[in-house]
């Protein structure tokens, strides 16, 4: 596919995918979702890529769904636009490799939902977070009502959803919405360091961790433990193989 909004750069075995629609604060339109679907497929099929980083160009990570595109939608089209985004963001969780959000600026509405669809989030001290949908008389439509409470708990989720307050990176760190915060100039280097470190670990272990932690959220504790035991049993470490083997040759 020809990409107009997304840019992909490969550094070592890390794919950095940048969202570039700076005039609209990288707002998410239908074209974005089609490009991201194609990018997810392309990166997933490239066995040389071990981690994907998603970031935004300019002042915003993503300032939400494209309000200009949303205004003309009727109820059925609204539901379809919601499902389009839900499916794309779910596919990030289904990728066989870790996906990290490097949040450089505004992550609002659909932008925060995109970040929450990633496996974890690294933020610049300049990043701002919020779910401002109620200001427009809307609710989030890209799984924000479901992911936010799972990530930060019911109280902080409902606070952010109901007040539409915009919070900074330190508050986001405090409530567990992001995992690390760096100065803007250091954001990409530090995120790359984390990605490269993960890329040195056993790829099958990383792939399994991602899948079973995510699947476990929808299971009872006992079912989750059963899944863990089954997957542990197929771990090459248990079969006594050396680390170099299960690293698939990655140095
Ligand atoms: N959609 C489209 N265009 C946008 C968006 C957006 N979400 N955000 C900013 N822009 C555009 C502005 O219209 C402006 O364009 P122009 O220069 O042509 O007027 C340009 O980006 C720059 O924006 P500002 O001049 O406003 O820049 P500021 O630095 O003053 O402010 C803000 C930056 C704070 C990010 C501000 O732009 C803002 O508040 N944006 C809207 C944020 C928002 O409400 N986002 C939530 C949208 S709703 C949503 O995401 C729902 C998701 C679920 C959808 C489900 C579908 C069914």
How far apart the termini lie comes to: 32 Å
- Give the low-pLDDT segments: 242-251
Strand order across the largest sheet: 1-2-3-5-7-10
Strand content range:
15-25%
How many structural domains in the coordinates?
Answer: 2
Name of the CATH superfamily of the largest domain: 2-enoyl-CoA Hydratase, Chain A, domain 1
Report the order of strands and helices: EEHEEHHEEHEEHHEHEHHHH
Q: What would you say the CATH architecture of the largest domain is?
A: Alpha-Beta Complex
Catalogue the ligands: octanoyl-coenzyme A
**Gyration radius over CA:** 18 Å
State mean pLDDT (0 to 100 scale).
94
Q: Give a quick account of the main beta sheet: strands, pairing sense, barrel closure.
A: 6 strands, mixed
Report the total helices: 11
Structural class: alpha/beta
Number of strands: 10
Write a compact overview of the structure shown.
With 251 residues, the protein is α/β, with parallel strands linked by helices. Helix content is 47%, strand content 17%.
Describe this structure in words.
This protein is α/β, with parallel strands linked by helices and 251 residues long. The chain has two domains: 6-199, 2-enoyl-CoA Hydratase, Chain A, domain 1 (Alpha-Beta Complex), CATH 3.90.226.10; 203-250, no CATH class. The chain has eleven helices and ten strands. A six-stranded mixed β-sheet has the order 1-2-3-5-7-10, sandwiched between helices. Helix 1 links the parallel strand 2 and strand 3 (51-56). The two termini are 32 Å apart. Bound molecules: octanoyl-coenzyme A. Octanoyl-coenzyme A (CO8) is lined by residues 24-25, 27, 63-68, 70, 78, 81-82, 106, 108-110, 132-133, 136, 138, 140-142.
């Amino acid at each position: 596919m020809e990409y107009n909004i997304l840019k992909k750069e490969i550094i070592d075995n890390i794919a950095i995918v940048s969202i570039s629609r700076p005039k609209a604060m990288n707002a998410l339109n239908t074209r974005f979702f089609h490009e991201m679907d194609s990018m997810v497929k392309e990166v997933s099929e490239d066995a040389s890529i071990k981690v994907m980083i998603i970031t935004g160009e300019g002042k915003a990570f993503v300032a939400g769904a494209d309000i200009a595109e949303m205004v003309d939608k009727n109820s059925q089209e609204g539901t379809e636009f919601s499902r389009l985004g839900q499916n794309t963001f779910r596919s990030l969780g289904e990728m066989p490799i870790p996906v990290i959000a490097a949040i450089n600026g505004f992550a609002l509405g659909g932008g925060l939902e995109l970040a929450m669809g990633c496996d974890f989030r690294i933020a610049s001290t300049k990043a701002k977070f919020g779910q401002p949908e109620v200001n427009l008389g809307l609710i989030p439509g890209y799984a924000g009502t479901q992911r936010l409470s799972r990530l930060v708990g019911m109280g902080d989720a409902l606070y952010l959803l109901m007040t539409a307050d915009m919070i900074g990176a330190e508050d986001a760190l405090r409530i567990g919405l992001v995992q690390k915060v760096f100065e803007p100039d250091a954001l990409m280097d530090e995120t790359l360091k984390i990605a490269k470190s993960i890329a040195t670990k056993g790829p099958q272990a990383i792939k399994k961790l991602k899948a079973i932690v995510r699947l476990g959220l929808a299971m009872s504790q006992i079912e989750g433990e059963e899944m863990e035991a089954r997957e542990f049993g197929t771990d090459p470490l248990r079969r006594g193989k050396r680390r170099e083997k299960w690293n698939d040759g990655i140095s």
